């Protein structure tokens, strides 16, 4: 896996992933940025959220559960001094489906957190990670 980051101007950067996708990043105005794109640390949270969402949906589908939707909201706190690593992250899942069992959803989240989601497992080296979920019955 690879990624190339190119400085544009000010505090704006473009990342090109190994698969050829582009992601813009920008800094806060007080840091010389123009606030045109997410901050790198926001992208880390988005990556962890995407990683676990992929896992949970895949695990539920493989278990033949009728999952129809999945969203993950991440609430994070960072250290006050440099390096400002994440110190606490709460993953809050909303899983939509038909007749989903809480035990199945909890198992999928646990497997993601403990075995499959490389991003959240890596972040757990500095942050206290918690998980919560709700199930929404699909029409």
Description:
This protein is α+β, with helices and mostly antiparallel strands and 139 residues long. It folds into 2 domains: 1-38, N-terminal domain of TfIIb (Single Sheet); 40-137, GMP Synthetase, Chain A, domain 3 (2-Layer Sandwich), CATH 3.30.300.20. Helix content is 32%, strand content 38%. The chain has helices at residues 40-62, 102-116, 118-123, and strands at 3-9, 12-17, 22-25, 66-78, 86-98, 128-137. The chain has a 3-stranded antiparallel β-sheet, with no helix packed on it. Strands 4-5-6 form a 3-stranded mixed β-sheet, with helices on one face. Helix 1 crosses helix 2. It is elongated and about 50 Å long. The mean pLDDT is 97.
Helices and strands, with pairings:
Elements: E1 3-9, E2 12-17, E3 22-25, H1 40-62, E4 66-78, E5 86-98, H2 102-116, H3 118-123, E6 128-137
Parallel strand pairs: 5-6
Antiparallel strand pairs: 1-2, 2-3, 4-5
